[in-house]
Design goal:
single chain; 52% helix; Trna Endonuclease, Chain: A, domain 1; alpha/beta; 25% strand; 3 helices
Length: 215
């Protein structure tokens, strides 16, 4: 014998079915959200991994480029040092001994100078540049050389301190901004001795700015 449900029981069944359907929808929604969160976490982890790898490659590249640049600079300094030791003089000043990579400190700052030449009467400070640029000339003439003179003053015992810039090539008028002075003229006006290292690793002293036809 079939027992018919009362109207209240029927409504309760319908409510339970609706609630069950809602609960299932919520479960499916939560499962979908969980999957999305897991996928996002995976993507984030992968992105972090890619960023870390990119950072590693960038650091290695910077190190490689820096090492290459430093190595190239040291090679040029060695070439200049060998050429100077061969002629044993700078601008008519006889040099007894040359030293490379000389560090000096004044208690607050420390600077390294590419080459320093000594004789009983003079100290010659040589700044080596692959390309002679106005900003490099100013930095040496206005900051680095005066600092050397300040630190060495009490030890030099009246010895003359001479500034020298040695280079492979100098920027031409076309390579220098219109409001800048050509580096050779600027250096000579600052009282520096200019020595150019030729392709044959020989020294050519510059005593005046080159004429237009010589540039």
């Amino acid at each position: 014998m079939t027992v018919q449900k009362t109207e209240s029981e029927s409504r309760l069944d319908r409510v339970e079915k609706v609630l069950a359907a809602v609960a299932e929808d919520i479960r499916l929604l939560m499962e979908e959200r969980r999957k999305e969160a897991a996928a996002a976490a995976k993507r984030s982890k992968e992105v972090d991994k890619q960023l870390a790898e990119a950072g590693r490659i960038a650091a290695q590249t910077n190190k490689t480029v820096g090492n290459y640049t430093n190595g190239e600079g040291m090679m040029l300094e060695d070439e200049c040092l060998a050429a100077l030791r061969k002629v044993k003089s700078i601008g008519g000043i006889a040099i007894d001994e040359f030293f490379a990579g000389v560090r000096i400190a004044n208690g607050q700052a420390e600077c390294e100078y590419d080459i320093v030449g000594l004789n009983p009467a003079a100290t010659v400070v040589v700044e080596v540049k692959r390309a002679l640029r106005p900003e490099g000339v100013r930095d040496f003439a206005e900051r680095r050389l005066p600092q050397f003179k300040r630190v060495l003053k009490k030890y030099s015992r009246g010895k003359k301190i001479v500034g020298v810039m040695m280079f492979k090539r100098a920027l031409t008028r076309k390579e220098v901004p219109a409001d800048e002075e050509e580096p050779i003229a600027l250096a000579l006006r600052a009282g520096l001795i200019l020595l150019q290292l030729t392709a044959k690793n020989e020294i050519k002293q510059i005593t005046k700015p080159p004429a237009k036809g010589e540039r």
